[in-house]
Amino acid sequence: MENRRKPASSSGIAHSKATPLCGGGDPRFGVSVGGVISNCPSRGPKIVSLKDETTASRIVGVTAGEGGLMTRIHHYPCAPTPMVPRSSSQSVSRRAFTLVELLVVIAIVGILIALLLPAIQAAREASRRASCQNNLRQIGVAINNYVSSTGKFPPGKKWAGPRSDPTVESFAWSCYVLGYLEEKALQVQLDLKKRMSHPDNLAVASAIVPIYLCPSASRLEEHRGEDGRLFGLGGQMGEGFGCIDYLGISGPDKDKSNPLTGEDYGPQRGILLGTKGLPNEDTLIEPPAVTPAHVTDGMSQTLMVAECTGRGVDVNKSGEVKSLNGAWASGANVSHVKKGINEEQPPIAWEDERLFSDHPQGVNGLACDGSVHFLSNDIDAKTLRAFCSRDGEESVTDFDGN
């Protein structure tokens, strides 16, 4: 053995680093045969060259060294060290998305949203429409309970005092059924013998009655807030009043002809009557009473309330309030039916109080028997007018226009 390092040959010579050990041993085999290692002289490491590659691969760690000492062999093979596979606990590098893949994913997500969004919106509208119909059912129960208690339908409009008094205002049918809508407190506080704008009535008239509001109403007259109250009237009467989306039906337009008789219907041929067109209308405090016996067309064949959503007030060009037709307490909340369903759009639909809603393709309507119908935009105008009359002898079955 030599004390210098020799370069590795092309035949694969293994280089080994030798470190002297102390203690007895058999130099023939280069292994320790017992005894405690002690009194070890200080010797530096020995560098040995093993020309036999096979022998180098069999060395187990100890051989005879210079001076009979045991030598530990640190074997460094010349052959390349094989790659060791990564353990499963080590992180694995991942290939990033390409731009094309990213664009494909975005396109797929966009398509899914485009497909799902209309379905979600349709489901929400179906829920709102069902809620609106439930409002009308409760109104129907309230009106029929009023009929059971009084023997007649509530007046569509009733004045608080003599018509000769220019300050007198009128109240709507919706004021008379509050007690049957679990709004007994409002009913008790409302004094129907005083003006609607009287200080004693202002708090009640400004209350929100949730059943009177359609959840689908989205197009609102400019003086109607999203909270369901009138605003921006510059201190005029009606400021802060609660609104309503359900219109009392006084009958078909008086100038329209009954398809069976060919004669004009005339005024106030419905259920919730006003005074317009009646004899002595300028002095009438309330219209003639309507009882179930007057409804000869049948309770299920006669419409008494339908949607006219989003109303606020009717103002003239100078901003003066002409009518509080969107306030639930106001006697302006009744009208004759002249046009078809959604035939006129806002603001005309609000000003003239036409049957109108934000439900797709129609409005909800309440018949005298408490049944609720979805009235299609396609319903024939003559059929609609027949549905609004109480005694025209018409038969109405085609509510949806199909």
SSE topology sketch:
Layout: E1 14-21, E2 46-50, H1 53-58, E3 62-64, E4 70-76, H2 99-150, E5 157-159, E6 170-172, H3 184-189, H4 199-205, E7 246-252, E8 303-307, E9 314-315, E10 321-323, E11 334-337, H5 348-351, E12 362-367, E13 372-376, H6 381-388
Parallel strand pairs: 7-11
Antiparallel strand pairs: 1-2, 1-4, 3-4, 5-6, 7-8, 8-12, 9-10, 12-13
What's the tally of helices?
Answer: 6
Biggest sheet, spatial arrangement of strands: 11-7-8-12-13
Largest sheet: 5 strands, mixed
Shape verdict:
globular
Q: Name the helicity range.
A: 10-25%
What string, H for helix and E for strand, traces the elements in order?
A: EEHEEHEEHHEEEEEHEEH
The low-confidence runs, each spanning 5 or more residues with pLDDT under 50, are 1-51, 74-81
Structure report:
There is one protein chain. The chain is of the alpha+beta class and 402 residues long. It has 2 domains: 14-76, no CATH class; 122-388, no CATH class. 21% of the residues lie in helices and 15% in strands. It contains 6 helices and 13 strands. The radius of gyration is 48 Å and the shape is globular. The N and C termini lie far apart (112 Å).
Distinctive features:
402 residues, alpha+beta, 2 domains, 5-stranded mixed beta sheet, 4-stranded antiparallel beta sheet, 6 helices, 21% helix
Short characterization:
With 402 residues, this protein is an alpha+beta fold. It has six helices and 13 strands.
